[in-house]
Amino acid sequence: MTLSQPGWLILLIPLAAAMWWWRLPSRGLQALRAVVLVLVLLALAGAVVRLPSRAGTVVVVADRSASMPPDAARAQVEAIGLLQDSRGAYDRLAVVSFGRRVVVEAAPEGEGFSEFAGEVNPDASDLASALRTGLGLIPPESPGRLLVLSDGRYTGADPLAAVARAAARQIPIDYRAMRRPATGDLAIVRVDVPLSVAPEEAFLMHAWVRVPHRQTVRYELRRGGTVILAGDKRVESGTTCLSFRDRAASAGTRAYTVHVEGAPADPVPENNRARALVTVRGPKPVLVVTPSEGSGFALLLEGGGINVEARPAAQCRWRLEDLARYAGVVIENTPAGDVGDDGMMHLAAWVKEVGGGLMMTGGKQAYGPGGYFRSPLEPILPVSMELRREHRKLALAIVVALDRSGSMGMTVPGGRTKMDLANLAASEVVGLLSGLDEFGCVAVDSSPHIIAPLAPVTDKATVQRRIRHIGAMGGGIFVYEALSTAARMLLKAKAGTRHIILFADAADSEEPGAYQALLAKCRKVNLTVSVIGLGTPSDVDAGLLKDIASRGGGRCMFTQKPQELPRLFAQDTFVVARSTFLDEPTPVRTTGGMASLTGRTFAGMPAVGGYNLCYLRPGANLAAVTADEYKAPLVAAWSAGAGRALCYTGEADGPYAGPVASWNDVGHFFTSLARWTAGRSQELPRSMLLAQELGEGLCTVTLHLDPDRASLPFDGMPTVTTLRGRPGSPPQSSRQEMAWISTDALQVDVPLGGEETALSSVEVPGVGRRTLPPVCAPYSAEFRPADPERGTTTLEHLARATGGARRVDLGGMWKTLPALPRRVALAPWLLLAAVVLFLAEVLERRTGVFAAALGAVRFRRKAEADEAAPPRPRRRTRRQRGRARRAAEETVEQEVAAQPPADIGETLRQARRRAKDRTRRPEP
Fold first, then answer.
1. Domains (ranges, CATH) in the chain?
2. What is the arithmetic mean of pLDDT over 266-281?
């Protein structure tokens, strides 16, 4: 036994002194107390014993990358289940899954494993990091094994680097190979394109295709969504080159897709399609997102000499390769719903991370009424859009009717349910209202449940807390019950504006009843209804919801993304409040900040016909302000991260443009604002050259310096900011510092995923920022053609170097754990024994039960011994002894008298001896 904290033994001295001073009534109790104190001291000192044991930890390392077979996840879960069922009481099982990221799915001391839940990004196979993580889960000096369930293909660091660490800890690495067949794989090996070309320049593209056997290959080349070349070609086995020719047009980025098809039984069809991006150099245009075709505002900018592309939001694509085509984006009075949450997230990231420019103009479909409050774009705008109480003209009464049917209990990405997000959306409405307003909430399934009665909004926190606790129930939403209950609540409202927001599932809305008659009565009492439908306009009940909104005098909005619900609820509240767009002619005045934006003050600017009431953010540049009671910003701008954002809150083109539309300087005014938004072209000095090169799954960015320089041309180490975007996911940003690779060059490697586009910008301290053309990998590196035996060879090498093996029978794996000395802490057992003995001591002191039991045992044993022993003579009394002595003397005298006379002296001596002998003998 060893002690991990022997310092506690110093307490033996004061404890011994205390026991000597305060003695217990008996020696037994004193000894019992001493044993209790010794046990406690040993527990505090960390008593540990080392015992040989096979109980240990098995860590399963599961490959969840895209190269795995389609049924790999099911097979891995079954294998882990076999290990769980066969482990012993003291065995521990951990699960690690990996792709580009490594996730601990189940810890050794956890509750067990049921299914994979972590997000690993299947675009890569970081096997090396997964092995390091698995080794870290096995406690030191404890038996353990790693079981790798993988095809053995990896990206990034070599996993064989983990062999030395595993071997040093005597942890074998076992494996079970799981791979998809690769025989007969027709694949695009790589696509060679120039990263950038000049306008109107003709260029070639080469697609290198590996063909498993002689066959006819059908190929197709697309530019964007347009097929520009297609055909068939008879090719021999091996690698062949398909060449394509195209001509660059205007400046921007062009996306190309090459697709090949061969034999129908292709085991890896994912590598039959490859992407490539080509950037056309030159001045980039400005994208104007217009509410309709033929925007006068876009024509105005074009007349001012700006290269403009104008199109409605429905025709815009918000991927990074599309945004990289433009110097700036102008959103002209367009609702946020037309841009979409994905589009706004990509726009915001493009502005903040890589230096894009954004300008927004006002109108009834912009800012708050347009749904931009709490949207992804709001944080980068130099104005805020909240509803302030002091600027409200009319009181508002709103009742929110929420669908709480069973379908609302479904989980959405992010871990929340649809009901959670609907509750959050209703809470947003409460947050927008003031004490002048009234609010009520009713949750509906097959019957209505009033969550918050209609009342003035005085205690927002309490109402919001009630709403957030609404749970999904069974059945569908009964529409008539929802509308009639909400209408009855609003009839008691004191506010002049009364409104219902009906939230329903577009595929599960039932029992509309006589809703037409009900809505007709509502309109007569100035009560309006808007509908927010979870689904699409083509869902089975979408027509009913549209008709309800039309008859109710409100709006109908659909979304398939529950995450958009808070923004849609806030947007409808803004529209109903109507105080955030002031549709009256308003005088304005410019400030000194206008000169810093445009180079002119534009003094004497005429009035605007209406504007969106917003508020200047701290740190923003106020260039023009309204001259009414609100003193609200009309033109505000600031730097948003690496980019620029500008807001013009008046309507640029439309019925509320006002006198400014006929102003002589209106063209110069708006053109100057747009030019500031787009910024200047980014160029590095001639002493620096920035280049990027594509490799296998990597983009290498290199900064070359003039070898004849006298000193370093920058103040600090350059950094590369990379913005990555993939379809259906929010953009991700990362930042890396460049490293020296020679005396005249710095470099950094940017990993590329299969479906993502990477847009990098280089910040050179003291020089400036340069945005590079967007790049992409042809496809995921997981589908890269490779030797099918390479992965198995890697797994075999890992096993052979660490003493592992290929595992078929997983149930017996626990018995193969090495028997190693295991440290067993005795503290719990010592404390348990101390508690038991202390309770025994207390019981003895209170009752004496143990002493009584011990005395009874001793008495019984003595009695049994007495019964088994021979009878002992009784001890005579003093009187009896005197009588015996006198009787002996008389006997002696009689014997002497009976003998003949002789030597009288000798006779007397013999008589005395005999008398003494008799008196010494015990009597019977």
1. 2-51+824-855 (no CATH), 55-178+788-818 (3.40.50.410), 187-280 (2.60.40.10), 286-385+582-677 (3.40.50.880), 389-528+556-578 (3.40.50.410), 688-706+715-771 (2.60.40)
2. 89
